[in-house]
Write a structure and sequence with these properties.
The complex is a heterodimer of chains A (443) and B (175). With 443 residues, chain A is an alpha+beta fold. Chain A has helices at 4-12, 24-34, 120-124, 161-165, 168-176, 197-206, 211-214, 216-220, 256-262, 267-276, 279-286, 347-360, 366-382, 425-438; strands at 15-17, 40-44, 53-59, 62-68, 74-78, 93-95, 98-100, 107-109, 114-116, 142-146, 149-153, 183-193, 236-240, 243-249, 290-297, 301-306, 319-329, 332-342, 391-393, 417-420. In chain A, a hairpin with a 2-residue loop joins strand 17 and strand 18. By secondary structure, chain B is an alpha+beta fold. Chain B has helices at 14-31, 35-39, 75-86, and strands spanning 42-53, 64-73, 98-111, 115-127, 135-148, 151-161. In chain B, a hairpin with a 7-residue loop joins strand 4 and strand 5 (135-148). Classes of the chains: A alpha+beta (443), B alpha+beta (175).
């Protein structure tokens, strides 16, 4: 038995018991106390544009059908027949007006209502034995969306999603609302890595410190627009609501348009961003020159924005990716990685942005490849006995006495708290939310 | 895939034999991590694609994602991938994987005067370190192989992987 209060006390002071990255008991607590209630991303509305379009997604062991019904309403339903529990949908995507259970042919409309079952009169005595009215596949206890991103919770007492997102919505817009048309998601690429799910979530939340070394190779080959990955230390780290992220510091003195052109956006997209974003969102880029990079929304949805060189001519093109760290066990994670692009972007931009994404992130991405090598190795080590003696130092940015080594940025135009330079404020923030879920705290 | 109508060249046909040998020699280069030698086998207008497979109903009419793949490469991006492996900082392949590309089920179809369409089955065994289980990737490949002044060259490859969720930590390898 682990001593949970002692583990969380260590986490709270930034000394992380190494075994939490490969511990069956901890994983059970994450399943029962965290994923049992947190808002978890399942799909984006652009993945199911037409009536009947569906995708099947999981929250740990639970399979859900995310479907647009005949009236255009998005629904999320537990993929288990009311009769004997067979999965009513065994494909992962498609278009259907009905879902028919293969076992006894109970058939549901794509809004979840039971449409019919064989031999209703003979087997059940009709509605006297089984009233069809009111029978429906179990809906996700809570469902809500923001910018077309669909989230569910396995509890029905969650605060509205927008309330939960809080200050992070400001940053979420920079990735998923570059124009009124909103974002479209393509994918996901899916693959399994022998790594604990928390490591990727923490990394994307705030680990600008790993970039100069882990990703040295992509700078070596000139793929990355920034000449030196050490420029990372000039970026700002922010914590905002249930999210946290990193930024790059662009060359000083650029206007809003010049900053966005520098990372490769065409003028028509820049004009759309200027009208879609608030003054504060524009100032983050224009005044301060901070361009969003990686971020994580607790618990397991991450974002990345980067701008590599996509051809021999040196063309720089940005891309956005969303990715989910779907836990399989304490030692294995399924990664779902989507290419995301503004729906109204020019076709030529979409094509190049897609190629930029493929080169950098996803199953074959050259950044991502080296990340995962690290995370698999950490997880391997965290499963042994010695890992129970080791406290990992996650105190970057704090003095020994626990004070920040420098003050937060005073003039940061985004909400939340931001620090310039390296630090592990964001990872500790993520872990504090993790801790409060594991103790059944107020989150 | 030319599963139905078209008839493959007989195994005795020299074009089939040359194509088969090309694939086996290519696999040997990849297993020897001779990636520059491998690039030399590609035409400058190479298209190297690997769709994401998805589980769909039999009647759905599609079994791959539209709009995103695992690979969608041209010579620029393939060169970058090889250049990266040349650096001292490509940690995911340092120490390198032990790989074996098993190539079989080769069927060759004539396509004009100077091109061959060649289908093959690939089983990639990939082993890293000493504690992890090895990875296996099974795929069907459809190649366009072109006769050039320098010999046969690969002009297009489509890799149809047989899993919807890859069981390998990344695609820092070529198939």
């Amino acid at each position: 038995m682990i001593d949970l209060p002692a583990v969380l006390a260590d986490v709270g002071r930034g000394m992380i018991p190494a075994h939490i990255y490969n511990d069956q008991e901890i994983f059970g607590l994450e399943r029962d106390r965290l994923f049992s209630r947190a808002w978890v991303f399942v799909a984006h509305e652009s993945e199911i544009p037409a009536p009947g379009d569906y995708v099947v997604r999981r929250v740990l062991g639970d399979s859900f059908i995310v479907v647009r019904d005949e009236l255009g309403t998005v629904r999320v339903m537990f993929n288990m027949c009311l009769h004997k529990g067979m999965q009513v949908c065994r494909a992962e995507m498609g278009n259907a007006s009905h879902f028919r259970c293969p076992y006894h042919a109970w058939t549901y409309r794509n809004d979840g209502r039971l449409a019919g079952l064989p031999f209703h009169a003979e087997a059940y005595g009709g509605d006297d034995g089984l009233a069809r009215q009111g029978q429906a596949l179990l809906p996700a206890p809570s469902m809500d969306s923001y910018n077309g991103l669909i989230f569910i919770s396995l509890r029905d007492d969650q605060p509205p999603l927008r309330d939960w997102l809080g200050d992070f919505a400001f940053y979420l817009d920079l990735y998923t609302r570059q124009s009124p048309a909103g974002v479209e998601l393509r994918g996901p690429q899916r693959w399994r890595v022998k790594a604990n799910w928390k490591i990727g979530a923490e990394n994307f939340a705030g680990d600008s410190y790993h970039t100069p070394h882990t990703h040295a190779s992509v700078v070596d080959i000139g793929l990355f627009r920034e000449p030196r990955a050490s420029k990372r230390k000039e970026g700002a780290l922010y914590v905002a609501g249930p999210g946290a992220g990193t930024t790059y510091k662009l060359p000083p003195g650029g206007s809003f348009g010049e900053q966005l052109r520098y990372v490769g956006y065409p003028d028509e997209m820049i004009a759309a961003m200027a009208s879609a974003w608030s003054a504060g969102q524009r100032e983050l880029i224009e005044q301060a020159g901070f361009m969003v990079s990686a971020a994580t929304l607790f618990p397991n949805l991450s974002f990345v924005h980067n701008w590599p060189v996509v051809d021999e001519a040196g063309t720089v093109v940005p891309f956005v990716s969303l990715r989910q760290w779907q836990p399989v066990s304490e030692r294995e994670t399924e990664v779902l990685s989507w290419f995301a692009v503004d729906a109204a972007a020019p076709a030529a931009f979409k094509r190049l942005s897609y190629r930029a994404y493929l080169m950098c992130f996803g199953s074959s991405g050259m950044f991502e490849q080296d990340d995962v090598e690290n995370w698999v190795s950490i997880t391997d080590m965290a499963g042994g006995s010695m890992a129970r003696r080791l406290l990992l130092n996650s105190r970057m940015g704090l003095t020994l006495a626990g004070a920040a080594i420098k003050p937060p940025l005073a003039s940061f135009s985004g909400p939340g708290v931001a620090y310039q330079g390296f630090g592990e404020f964001n990872q500790r923030h993520w872990l504090s939310m993790w801790s409060s879920h594991l103790t059944g705290g107020d989150r | 895939m030319n599963t139905g109508k078209a008839k493959p060249l007989p195994y005795s046909d020299e074009r089939h034999q040359a194509a088969h040998q090309f694939l086996v020699e290519e696999a040997a280069l990849l297993d020897a991590a001779d990636y520059h030698g491998w690039l030399d086998l590609l035409t400058d207008d190479i298209e190297y694609v690997m769709p994401v497979r998805v589980t769909t109903a039999r009647g759905a009419g599609f079994d791959s994602l539209d709009g995103v793949g695992h690979f969608d490469e041209d010579m620029y991006s393939l060169r970058k991938r090889v250049q990266r492996l040349d650096t001292e900082h490509a940690w995911t392949e340092d120490p390198p994987s032990r790989t074996r590309h098993f190539v079989s089920n080769v069927r060759t179809f004539a396509s004009g005067d100077a091109e061959l369409v060649v289908e093959s089955a690939l089983l990639l065994f990939r082993s890293r370190g000493d504690t992890r289980e090895a990875d296996l990737l099974s795929a069907g490949r459809t190649d366009l192989i072109r006769q050039t002044d320098d010999g046969l060259r690969l002009a297009r490859r489509e890799i149809k992987v047989d899993e919807s969720v890859l069981r390998t930590q990344n695609l820092a390898v070529f198939l």
